[in-house]
């Protein structure tokens, strides 16, 4: 009878040691082991605020009165509203909201104070950018209670009758762009950016490393070619792939989720090409940095995760702490989400789009420059 | 005189970390020559070729390749060189025709379609052009690689072990092709491990551990080694070899087919050493050493500076 091979702790230990050694050598995996939990902890533990506060708010003050100011200071004291600018016309209010500079516009109408004192229940108008319903929900909910108590101070003595049972003023909230607060309207267009980020970066991320692993790189390098030729040559085909995805998602958005399409679709397609190119450039640059296909995949993941979490796709951008917003501003997805949601839901035109688009272009340019510099023309 | 020198380089050196892969090699190759590059694995043949065509940056050295500065003008050199890598490096997920077309485009070949068709015809790949490169056998892959290297009508071909893993018939066809092309004025630098191939080269160089040990025609290389070789036939030759090795005068005792070749640099010493073994039934005969005897001798006498 053959002697059975028994389980050996010595062998087990040998393998464990080997794995540790390899893990230590493979810095990228090690980085992920450390980096991902840290990033998640920071984000979910501190960063993500499901109840975003200090939302930037503009004021249209058509009646400068004691009562109006009381209302505004009450809003401010609630922590939900942070007055960042004063607008002077309905059109200006509209524009700031469309550009996404503010989340709310509060309008104190003409003769507010007079009508209030006459007991005519003037209307306080609050317009909210409700593209992402979760960003505005709590702030709006707090309004009613807030306003009631704000005017208590002013309406004392002979005016006390005004603070009657159904309140001294009418509150009108316009949830703009997504009045029903349907979260799909926010998520489905956003998904377009997320899908493109994931796939585009990954596809090109493998491009150069695959050549190197299959040995075809040696051949390619022996041919008279410039780095930019190789890099762009690997980017361009996938722009078409990207458009297929854009087409799919837009079709689904229109016919499955009935997402409103307020703006120009050609403009969106144009902006998409820049975004697709930016992601492809990122991928190709990863490809020049990575030693093999696995590393390229890991880098893709490294890029995808913050894009997913910090771009405003998963959580309201304004609900994140400042440092996270700073990182978010660097990512192309953040700007693309503003473009897609802006065009589809707000009906934004070229002016608002350009404000975001140049930042994506800058990102693409910087990343591609790194890629070209890092691309090795020799096998050294 | 320099008109017909295709490769003229001096002191080519390449270091990887603290190891010197190629150590100050000088090489001159004339136009229309088939130049053989020999030496054991890791001797620096591939590294040297890669430096010639700009795939590796040389740490030291100077000279010209096809009239261009070998250090600074590799972009120009690349256009006129065909480089066949040791490992098949075309796209296995592309067909023969697609690969050739890609290469032709990369080199900006005039009348591309015709050039592709012509090279398919010439190499006898007609009828298989739609086949994926990855599905080809070793011999066919090698033909494809050669066709691809030739498509832009290079003046110099650098072939790195082109016949490794190829059957004898295909090898012979391959060498016929090479001599035909050389007759048309094409220059070849070919690395190989096969002695029969080495003998078909106009001139040879032997590398070991990054050093060029000898160069010249096969006859020159053999004469330069100043080796005396005896051939012995008989029973239990392994035992004879074991006893001979290490004896003063005996450089090497190597089996060649059914014979044993005993060689040494000192003819007199060698004769003394083998004297006790010249008994019945052994048949001793002094022969002129062959290339293989010389190369084994060179390999044995060069210092091992790689401690792997």
Describe it:
- The complex is a heterodimer of chains A (380) and B (308).
- Chain A has 380 residues and is an alpha/beta fold.
- Chain A contains 14 helices and 5 strands.
- Chain A folds into 2 domains: 55-176, abc type-2 transporter like fold; 183-374, no CATH class.
- Chain A has a 5-stranded mixed sheet with strand order 2-1-3-4-5, with helices on both faces.
- With 308 residues, chain B is an alpha/beta fold.
- Chain B has 2 domains: 2-221, P-loop containing nucleotide triphosphate hydrolases (Rossmann fold, 3-Layer(aba) Sandwich); 228-288, Alpha-Beta Plaits, CATH 3.30.70.860.
- Chain B is built from 11 helices and 14 strands.
- Chain B has helices at 45-52, 74-80, 96-106, 112-122, 138-150, 168-183, 195-199, 218-225, 237-244, 267-274, 291-301; strands at residues 5-16, 19-30, 34-38, 60-65, 68-69, 81-84, 156-160, 187-191, 203-208, 211-216, 228-233, 252-256, 259-264, 283-287.
- In chain B, the strands form 3 sheets. In chain B, strands 6-7-8-3-9-10 form a 6-stranded mixed sheet, sandwiched between helices. In chain B, strands 2-1-4-5 form a 4-stranded antiparallel sheet, covered by helices on one side.
- In chain B, helix 6 (168-183) links the parallel strand 7 (156-160) and strand 8 (187-191).
- Residues 304-308 of chain B have low confidence and may be disordered.
- Chains A and B meet through helix 8 of A and helix 2 of B.
Quickly count the helices of chain A.
Answer: 14
Number of E-state strands of chain B: 14
Can you write the helix and strand succession of chain B as a string? Answer: EEEHEEHEHHHEHEHEEHEHEEHEH
Structural domain count of chain B? 2
The portion of residues forming beta strands of chain B comes to 25-35%
Strand order of the largest sheet of chain A: 2-1-3-4-5
Helix content of chain A: 55-70%
End-to-end separation of chain B in angstroms reads 43 Å
